[in-house]
Hints:
Elements: H1 2-18, H2 39-43, H3 47-58, E1 61-66, E2 69-74, H4 77-86, E3 91-93, H5 97-103, H6 113-126, H7 129-150, E4 154-156, H8 157-174, H9 180-197, H10 209-233, H11 242-248, H12 260-291, H13 293-309, H14 319-322, H15 326-339, E5 347-349, E6 353-355, E7 358-360, E8 365-368, H16 371-374, H17 413-430, E9 431-435, E10 442-444, E11 448-450, E12 455-460, H18 472-477
Parallel strand pairs: 2-8
Antiparallel strand pairs: 1-2, 3-5, 4-12, 5-8, 6-7, 9-12, 10-11
Amino acid sequence: xxxxxxxxxxxxxxxxxxxxxxxxxxxxxxxxxxxxxxxxxxxxxxxxxxxxxxxxxxxxxxxxxxxxxxxxxxxxxxxxxxxxxxxxxxxxxxxxxxxxxxxxxxxxxxxxxxxxxxxxxxxxxxxxxxxxxxxxxxxxxxxxxxxxxxxxxxxxxxxxxxxxxxxxxxxxxxxxxxxxxxxxxxxxxxxxxxxxxxxxxxxxxxxxxxxxxxxxxxxxxxxxxxxxxxxxxxxxxxxxxxxxxxxxxxxxxxxxxxxxxxxxxxxxxxxxxxxxxxxxxxxxxxxxxxxxxxxxxxxxxxxxxxxxxxxxxxxxxxxxxxxxxxxxxxxxxxxxxxxxxxxxxxxxxxxxxxxxxxxxxxxxxxxxxxxxxxxxxxxxxxxxxxxxxxxxxxxxxxxxxxxxxxxxxxxxxxxxxxxxxxxxxxxxxxxxxxxxxxxxxxxxxxxxxxxxxxxxxxxxxxxxxxxxxxxxxxxxxx
Length: 478
Ligand code: HEM
């Protein structure tokens, strides 16, 4: 009896939740061809143009069909806020199963609720201001050795920056004492996984990038389990690195520890989230500064003042100094805006949702567009111009979301910015760079980067630079 009345109440509840949805129509737009939808149109051109074209035709909320899924695209600050913040509980993160398998299904960004919150707290704690302050010398050492390797040679900027962000990722995740051969094993397998992650998944064929990556992922799991086992046997889990943080993480007050698989999936998840993203933005910064010599001079002037303050680079850069670089900070923000390397994100409606009189059906994907906000003349005057001075005034709330927003917003944004500040400091005070075949074309890898990853040659600056081999401060940090 009680059960029957509970069922009736639940059904009534469901009806009242769903009531506003009845009679609503889908947003305007086209679902394209059967099965293929509009996937070919999206991937055969710059995605920003695909979206801009539809925004013009249909307005800020429209439907499409990509990668085998019906989607509602939303492109206003209000709609992005609704999906990511105010009604975030109605939209769950969603990724293709092949990608989830590659990273590891227990990585935090695939989850919602308690487990997500627990992992997020751990990651945010590891990336808190105290930890970042302690990271400055390690980032500085990684930057110094990356630039030393590049010096006097022509190389692909993006590949060089990927190596830098990998090194920073490894030192922050595993601490300073990671043996070189283990780091090399991690690097080799990580890059095989990354290649497979970005390839078309064809399971069962052993020679495909995808199958190779699955095997490399298994090897990475074994390497991580090995590192954890050594730490346990030494009774030293690690103080302030992410691995130690996760190994010590308990559910509630002294509750259950995380399993090795949970830890491994989150370690690789964070490394993935941190690496290509930061490397792409760093590559864009080098391009934008190269193309704007006056701005480069202004950044150099600001950084030379810090360099002089540090006794000509003999003293290490400090966290406080990185907070006093307004011009360089503006260049970073403007690069994040103009490059907009994360064009959009994906969510899935967990129930029918009404928005602005339209229906977003349960199970449909929802794509908040970031790049079109960043490139809208309504929010950013002359949006295609690289103009860091626009960040002298804070952008309108909700219009600048390079790191997303809400419960899944990027917890690594301050570390990413720190890497950019430290790289710029070292780069402009000690070096100059020549871009081979300058071009405005874009390569997708999968994030947008300047054509071919920006081939460039790095040269020692003739005036005001430090001596070969780096300053004593760098040598000490390395
Ligand atoms: C310029 C560099 C970066 C950019 C542009 C960027 C951007 C983003 C964006 C837009 C999201 C939200 C995605 C969504 O809502 O679906 C995100 C999430 C995330 N990012 Fe970053 N990110 C960067 C660097 C980093 C770094 C350095 C780390 C770690 C050290 C990191 C770790 C993460 C993690 C763990 C998440 C998932 C958070 C969650 O689901 O709760 N990111 N990032």
